[in-house]
């Protein structure tokens, strides 16, 4: 192979096109360039000089293997022209003059001319002076940036001249390489239309979430920020064609290099643009050249030195478009030329055929050309007004004309004829297409039938196109061939045609969607089009438009799992697990219609649970894929406030082919990739603006080391101290500042923790290095973690003192120190201590006396929203854990060892959340309202914090994997990302309309306090007349009020007296309040039950407080209300009271009281039952109450347990105990309670046995095979010794001794709740059975 000859032959192209700065990192890692050579190249200022340095190095100092390595690097570049340079070099080196890939180099360079209109020499003349002026200005802005305005009247050739100049410079002279240009047609459009165009542009260049952009100012800012971050992309040349509105110039001022055409030259533009006036008039010689190009070859009419021709040219003002149209008329006699002169100078014409800015009748020239066509040809050309002002493919024109029985040959012949007449520009090649001038399109869109309005004619045009497409593909949209127009614009034309039937068919044609996804190479464009169609259907009140929204959400949710290249959307929809049955049914229908040689399979989801009461799980919005193997566990994200959201991760970690990838989140495209020095990556990080990345890798000499890159400039960044001495990069931790400073230039700030974990330093990027800021913290202990807080204004660090002894008591210091420093002043703002280890005793968290026997502190996060708090996680290797919120308002910073102080200020999360791994991720959202925790129960819990209280929670359970790598939030939003074991990255939102948060009680289950000194004593809620209503019992000072809230309003009722309980019930118009008052004749307070009638009325005069009864407990008795229900069947209120009193030897004795009050008659009945032991309610409904209690022996260890059943009475019969069963708690207890179908005529049945029976056959004999299998399975999945199965009809539920639900099901199937472990599900109002099935309330 002749490598040297290949480089020399392509040297000129090499100097122009190779993006050497972008490749320096790869060239350095592959050994093609040394570190010294890299630095020497960086000091060169001109691109050609850099490329010449590299070329000389390859020619004089490198061998064949380096040449092939360089070609491999070039081939992987994202710019096609660079790729094809690699193919050309390889072809020349191998001596292959004709190489298919190399021959495509020039053709593929056309890809740099994005949407640039065709300017064929056969159709246009080159106006040399005008062209040279534009080219010279373009060459200037290619080197130094700038903006050009070419202005002149429409039809004067501005667009053609600009396109000729741009095409010449890019394709022939290699300017604006390697990024090329974008041509964007603007025209006379509204601000909303301009916003749509710029959104599309933003999406195309790689900006994410453009659908959320709401204004032109915002889209301008987004694109500008994108170019600030992607400096090389800012070299793109933008061509904005035909701007009408002066304001639009400001919205388009985001680019570094642009050329604009406009009919106007506003004074304001002269300060920002190099203005070039267009030569509006062709010279006589130029005009005659145009006439000669347009007329037929056999036309011998003399054009030169012809007075009629010159008069015609002058009357047309030498306008290129008019001259070209007249040339296409093929005039061959003086009479014809005289007629055209009379027509074009006609002044007395209707306004609809006149064009502003012209003092001659241009449309008359169009009409003359039309008149020379037959009637069918005129009708056909008018139909072309339906197309957008882009290249129109031949296939789409064939479809448009197909209903008129026009064949492909006839179509091509007519288009050539129209091209000759300059009514359009037609290129007949392998990808035949045409372009139409916007003035001609304007003419084509004018209704011929004056009875039709413009809108009616517009709709009719689009309907003709949709009908033509449908006929071409026989109604099967997916069968239409890809012509670079149909799949892009089909939904748009269907909407414009107001063809609701076609829209609905397209929206369920999964095969068409499959084709569009594969052609666009993304799901994003499909979703955007579908959302536009949904908006249209919604505006027309079309039923079931929500179905299509479900499909869009489904596609976004599973995006990361869809193989775009080999996608079969029908097959995917048959196998996914989702609730929308119509999608699966339609996919199955389509699968059956496919040809017989295609095979499809589906998954049936039997007994799929559908909970219509409340949505507890957060469902993903979108999903992406990052990484390739199980070891690719690390990722980090940038801040979308500074441009596109970027993700950094690894591919093939711990393998030779390991690489660092930076992906654009919106498009899933890899924008940068780096081959690290070593293949074992421990951590990755990315700056807020996505410009700087860092990764930690294993190095044999230093163990762990960080490399830092500026990915925009493709250069390694090294750390330097205040003396400009290079620093070792063997940090333990590296954290990027969460925001970006722009003090005279963009600066990235970061903090590092030293290798010995005893020193924190702060740095900033400065050109091509990272400079020490002379801010340092040194500690004698090993720092566990450093975190930026308060959006980077502060830094928090914490450490433990395990290794230091207190000589006075000779034990470990159970202390962790937490410090918060201000970045600006570099002063310690706060220093506090928390226990390094705690123990849990009951509901109390206490400092551990012995560090080795407690739960060590493993994570600290700071919250400073409306109440300053810390999130603390304590966990051990054996999966024991507890986490919670430490409020700092009343927490004395140096008195952590005060047991009461810790207990009163540390509020643990609920027990089902406190099951996290030792190194579990805690993520605090930047609005400080949400905290997420990765739990060992295969979920990510999201906790909502309000006013320093743990208010509510929801959780995520991933669709494809139960193992999680990491989760993080997206800055500036309520969205967050979860990365699972399958390398799928799921996006979730905390603002879903159907997401309902589960309420939690904070402060160790104490009553919550409201603002302004109010204290919420109790609350209740119900559905009254199918409307949700809630009440709160509130004390403020000595006043008690009942606050009522429904979906319409909120108001208060003054209760006048003291109460501590409140209840409301479904379909009862009254509220019940219960209090305890001191009675004159009794030593202990009596229980007062009162009714607030008409409590839903805001008028205090209408509602009344009516005392229903007073219950006087025995002396020494303390009475607490345990349960309350309203039985609608006989209008009876039921109240269950638990009484405790002291007997001999101060032993506590308990009793149960049931009060029934008929609200109609006022008749009250009391039932009391003495129970020596503390009892607990297992189940209660309108007619039955089931309790159990423990009988402690003299040692205090619970041995026997008593189960008791009561039938609740009414106004005629007393409540009575109907059964009791005693069992040994050591042997356990399995109990089945069968509720009667008719509770008025039958009693419940109770069946029980010990839970732990060694002889399994006896257990089966007792329970039967089905029930014994259920009890047996639960005995291995719960630590509870009591299992209570409650059965009604075919449905059942199983509870443990704490009233927590373990399983529910029916005769056909059952479901373990939380994988068989007891969930903290409280049976709300004990309504286990509701209607025909289970209804479980969540408290």
What does this structure look like?
This protein is of the alpha+beta class. 27% of the residues lie in helices and 30% in strands. It has 33 helices and 68 strands. The strands form 16 sheets. Strands 15-16-17-18-24-23-22-19 form an eight-stranded mixed β-sheet. β13 and β14 (670-674) form a beta hairpin. α17 (320-328) runs parallel beside α19 (362-371). The longest helix has 20 residues, at 1256-1275. It is globular and about 130 Å long. The chain starts with a helix and ends in a 5-residue tail after the last strand. The model is unreliable at 96-107, 605-616, 804-810, 1002-1011, 1193-1198 and 1315-1339 (pLDDT under 50).
Report a brief summary of the structure.
With 1339 residues, this protein is α+β, with helices and mostly antiparallel strands. It has 33 helices and 68 strands.
Break the fold down into its secondary structure elements and pairings.
Blueprint: H1 3-9, H2 11-17, H3 20-29, H4 35-42, H5 47-61, H6 64-75, H7 80-93, H8 100-103, H9 105-109, E1 113-114, H10 128-144, E2 146-151, H11 158-172, E3 181-187, H12 191-205, H13 216-229, E4 237-243, H14 247-251, E5 257-262, E6 274-277, H15 284-294, H16 307-315, H17 320-328, H18 334-344, H19 362-371, H20 375-383, E7 392-393, H21 394-401, H22 408-420, E8 425-427, E9 433-435, H23 438-444, H24 454-472, H25 486-496, H26 500-506, H27 510-520, H28 524-539, H29 545-557, H30 569-575, H31 581-593, E10 620-625, E11 635-637, E12 646-651, E13 659-664, E14 670-674, E15 681-686, E16 692-699, E17 703-710, E18 715-720, E19 733-736, E20 741-742, E21 746-747, E22 749-753, E23 759-766, E24 769-778, E25 783-789, E26 794-800, E27 805-806, E28 811-812, E29 816-822, E30 828-834, E31 837-841, E32 844-847, E33 855-864, E34 868-875, E35 881-887, H32 899-905, E36 906-908, E37 922-924, E38 930-934, E39 940-946, E40 949-956, E41 964-969, E42 975-980, E43 984-989, E44 998-999, E45 1015-1024, E46 1027-1036, E47 1039-1046, E48 1050-1054, ...
Helix pairs in contact: 1-7, 2-5, 6-7, 10-11, 12-13, 15-17, 16-18, 17-19, 21-24, 24-25, 25-28, 28-29, 30-31
């Amino acid at each position: 192979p002749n490598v040297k000859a290949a480089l020399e032959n392509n040297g000129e192209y090499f100097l122009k096109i190779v993006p050497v700065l972008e490749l320096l990192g790869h060239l350095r890692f592959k050994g093609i360039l040394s570190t010294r050579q890299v630095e020497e190249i960086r000091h060169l200022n001109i691109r050609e000089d850099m490329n010449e340095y590299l070329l000389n190095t390859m020619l004089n100092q490198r061998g064949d293997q380096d040449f092939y390595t360089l070609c491999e690097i070039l081939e992987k570049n994202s710019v096609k022209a660079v790729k094809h340079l690699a193919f050309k070099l390889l072809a020349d080196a191998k001596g292959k003059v004709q190489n298919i890939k190399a021959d495509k180099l020039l053709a593929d360079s056309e890809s740099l001319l994005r949407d640039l209109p065709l300017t064929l020499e056969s159709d246009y003349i080159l106006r040399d002076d005008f062209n040279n002026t534009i080219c010279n200005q373009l060459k200037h802005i290619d080197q130094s940036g700038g903006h050009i305005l070419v202005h002149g009247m429409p039809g004067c050739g501005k667009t053609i001249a600009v396109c000729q100049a741009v095409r010449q410079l890019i394709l022939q002279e290699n300017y604006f390489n390697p990024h090329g240009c974008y041509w964007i047609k603007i025209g006379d459009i509204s601000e909303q239309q301009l916003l749509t165009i710029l959104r599309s542009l933003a999406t195309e260049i790689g900006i994410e979430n453009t659908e959320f952009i709401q204004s032109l100012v915002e889209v301008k800012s987004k694109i500008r920020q994108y170019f600030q971050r992607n400096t090389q992309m800012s070299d793109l040349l933008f061509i904005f064609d035909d701007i009408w509105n002066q304001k639009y110039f400001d919205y388009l001022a985001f680019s570094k290099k642009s050329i604009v055409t406009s009919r106007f030259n506003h004074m304001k533009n002269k300060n920002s643009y190099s203005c070039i006036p267009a030569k509006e008039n062709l010279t006589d010689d130029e005009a005659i050249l145009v006439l000669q190009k347009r007329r037929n070859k056999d036309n011998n009419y003399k054009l030169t030195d012809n007075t009629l021709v010159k008069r015609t040219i002058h009357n047309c003002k030498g306008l290129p478009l008019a001259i070209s149209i007249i040339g296409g008329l093929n005039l061959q006699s003086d009479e014809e030329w005289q007629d055209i002169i009379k027509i074009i100078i006609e002044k007395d014409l209707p306004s609809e055929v006149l064009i502003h800015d012209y003092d001659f009748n241009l449309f008359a020239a169009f009409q003359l050309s039309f008149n020379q066509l037959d009637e069918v040809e005129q009708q056909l050309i008018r139909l072309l007004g339906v197309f957008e002002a882009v290249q129109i493919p031949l296939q789409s024109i064939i479809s448009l004309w197909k209903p008129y029985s026009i064949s492909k040959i006839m179509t091509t012949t007519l288009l050539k004829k129209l091209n000759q007449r300059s009514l359009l520009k037609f290129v007949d090649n392998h990808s035949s297409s045409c372009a139409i001038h916007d003035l001609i399109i304007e003419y084509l869109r004018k209704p011929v039938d004056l009875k039709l309005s413009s809108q009616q004619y517009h709709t009719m045009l689009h309907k003709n196109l949709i009908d033509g497409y449908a006929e071409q593909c026989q109604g099967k949209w997916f069968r239409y061939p890809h012509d670079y127009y149909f799949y892009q614009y089909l939904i748009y034309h269907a909407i414009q045609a107001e063809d609701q039937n076609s829209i609905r068919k397209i929206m369920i044609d999964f095969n068409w969607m499959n084709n569009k996804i594969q052609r666009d190479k993304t799901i994003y464009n499909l979703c955007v089009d579908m959302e536009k169609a949904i908006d249209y259907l919604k505006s027309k009140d079309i039923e079931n438009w929500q179905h299509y929204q479900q499909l869009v959400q489904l596609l976004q949710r599973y995006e990361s799992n869809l193989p775009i290249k080999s996608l079969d959307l029908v097959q995917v929809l048959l196998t996914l697990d989702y609730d929308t049955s119509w999608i699966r049914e339609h996919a199955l229908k389509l699968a059956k219609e496919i040809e017989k040689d295609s095979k499809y399979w589906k998954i049936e989801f039997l007994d799929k649970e559908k909970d219509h009461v409340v949505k507890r799980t957060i469902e993903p919005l979108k999903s992406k894929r990052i990484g390739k193997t199980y070891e690719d566990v690390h990722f980090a994200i940038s801040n979308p406030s500074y441009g596109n959201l970027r993700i950094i991760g690894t591919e093939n970690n711990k393998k030779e082919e390991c690489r660092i990838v930076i992906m654009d989140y919106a498009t899933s495209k890899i924008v940068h990739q780096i081959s690290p020095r070593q293949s074992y990556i421990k951590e990755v990080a990315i700056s807020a603006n996505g410009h700087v990345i860092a990764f930690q890798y294993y190095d044999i000499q230093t163990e762990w080391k960080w490399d830092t890159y500026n990915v925009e400039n493709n250069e390694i960044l090294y750390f330097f101290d205040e003396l400009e001495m290079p620093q070792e990069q063997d940090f333990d931790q590296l954290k990027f500042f969460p925001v970006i400073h722009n003090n005279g230039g963009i600066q990235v700030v970061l903090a590092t923790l030293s290798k010995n974990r005893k020193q924190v330093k702060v740095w900033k990027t400065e050109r091509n290095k990272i400079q020490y800021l002379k801010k340092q913290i040194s500690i004698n202990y090993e720092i566990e973690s450093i975190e930026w807080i308060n959006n980077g204004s502060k830094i928090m660090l914490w450490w433990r003192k395990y290794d230091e002894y207190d000589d006075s008591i000779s034990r470990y210091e159970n202390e962790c120190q937490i410090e918060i420093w201000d970045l600006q002043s570099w002063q310690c703002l706060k220093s506090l201590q928390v226990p390094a280890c705690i123990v849990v005793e009951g509901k109390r968290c206490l400092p551990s006396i012995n560090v080795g026997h407690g739960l060590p502190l493993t994570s600290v996060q700071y919250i400073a929203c409306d109440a300053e708090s810390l999130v603390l996680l304590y966990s051990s290797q054996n999966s024991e854990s507890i986490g919670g919120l430490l409020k700092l308002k009343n927490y004395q910073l140096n008195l952590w060892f005060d047991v009461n102080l810790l207990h009163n200020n540390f509020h643990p999360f609920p027990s089902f959340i406190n099951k996290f791994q030792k190194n579990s991720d805690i993520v605090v959202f930047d609005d400080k309202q949400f905290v997420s925790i990765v739990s060992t129960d295969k979920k990510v819990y999201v906790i909502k914090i309000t006013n320093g209280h743990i208010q509510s929670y929801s959780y995520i359970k991933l669709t494809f994997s139960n193992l999680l790598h990491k989760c993080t939030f997206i800055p500036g939003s309520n969205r967050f990302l979860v990365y699972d074991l399958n390398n799928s990255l799921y996006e979730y939102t905390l603002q879903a309309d159907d997401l309902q948060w589960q309420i939690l009680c904070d402060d160790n289950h104490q009553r919550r306090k409201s603002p302004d000194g109010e204290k919420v004593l109790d609350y209740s809620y119900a559905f009254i007349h199918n409307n949700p209503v809630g009440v709160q019992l509130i004390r403020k000072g000595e006043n008690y009020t009942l606050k009522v809230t429904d979906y319409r309003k909120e108001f208060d009722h003054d209760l006048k007296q003291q109460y501590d309980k409140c209840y409301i019930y479904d379909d009862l118009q009254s509220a019940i309040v219960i209090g305890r008052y001191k009675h004159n004749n009794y030593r202990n307070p009596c229980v007062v039950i009162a009714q607030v009638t008409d409590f839903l009325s805001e008028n205090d005069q209408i509602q009344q407080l009516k005392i229903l009864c007073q219950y006087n407990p025995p002396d020494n008795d303390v009475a607490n209300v345990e349960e309350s229900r309203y039985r609608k069947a006989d209008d009876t209120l039921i109240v269950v009271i638990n009484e405790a009193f002291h007997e001999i030897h101060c032993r506590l004795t308990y009793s149960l009281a049931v009060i029934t009050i008929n609200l109609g008659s006022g008749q009250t009945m009391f039932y009391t039952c003495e129970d020596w032991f503390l009892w607990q309610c297992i189940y209660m409904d309108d007619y039955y109450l089931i309790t159990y209690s423990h009988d402690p022996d003299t040692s205090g260890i619970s041995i026997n347990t008593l189960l008791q059943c009561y039938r609740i009475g009414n106004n005629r019969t007393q409540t009575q105990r109907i059964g009791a069963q005693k069992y040994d708690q050591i042997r356990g207890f399995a109990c089945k309670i069968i509720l009667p179908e008719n509770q008025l005529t039958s009693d419940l049945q109770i069946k029980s046995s010990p839970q732990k029976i060694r002889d399994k056959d006896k257990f089966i004999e007792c329970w039967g095979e089905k029930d014994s299998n259920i009890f047996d399975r639960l005995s291995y999945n719960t630590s509870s010794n009591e299992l209570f199965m409650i059965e009604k009809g075919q449905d059942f539920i199983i509870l443990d001794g704490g009233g927590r639900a373990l399983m529910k099901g029916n005769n056909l199937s059952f479901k373990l709740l939380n994988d068989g472990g007891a969930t903290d599900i409280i049976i709300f109002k004990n309504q286990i059975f509701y209607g025909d099935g289970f209804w479980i309330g969540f408290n």
